[in-house]
Amino acid sequence: MKCSYCTTPNRDGRRFCSRCGVMLGWACPRCAFFNHLGEQHCGGCGVPRLGAETPHAAPQSPEATVQAATSPTTGRSAVIKDEITRFLQEQAAAQNHHEQTAPVSQDDIDTLFRR
Questions:
Q1: How far is it, in rounded angstroms, from Cα 58 to Cα 90?
Q2: pTM of the predicted model as reported, rounded to 2 decimal places
Q3: On the CB side of 12, how many CA atoms lie within 13 Å of its CA?
Q4: Please, which residues have CB within 8 angstroms of residue 70's CB and are 6 or more apart in sequence?
Q5: Distance CA 74, CA 26 (A)
Q6: Mean local confidence (pLDDT), 8-17
């Protein structure tokens, strides 16, 4: 299966692109069956995709498909972004804590060992 975002070929059965991590399909909200992008009804239970087009609607543009695949609420990219944000916040907090403590002088060290 070819990734709709970066066009990397991926082997069948993958849920996320091996290169960019974009979701390669959609999971059914009812039965969690994994469906490929472009499929408008679940292959597991037949339920229509949320926001699926009606048979008389105009076909969806490729740009809309890519946007849906990379939306912040789906895929691994949202999780990775949250982890990076949390890591940077922890690093900033540690840096602020480190800057607030006074540096230890050689006199303080000598006094400690004289005791």
A1: 47
A2: 0.38
A3: 0
A4: 5, 22, 77
A5: 9
A6: 87
Q: Are 17 and 10 in contact (CB under 8 A)?
A: yes
Six-digit token string for 114: 């004289």
At which residue do the structure tokens 């849906």 appear?
Answer: 68
Neighbours of 24 (CB within 10 A): 23
Look up tokens 């480190």; give the residue.
98
pLDDT per position as a tens digit, 73-93 = 456 677 777 778 888 888 887
Which residue matches tokens 């994994």? 34
CB 16 within 8 A of CB 24: yes
Q: In DSSP terms, which residues pair with 2 in a beta bridge?
A: 9
Chain CA centroid to CA 83, Å: 9
The radius of gyration computed from the CA coordinates of the chain, to the nearest angstrom, equals: 25
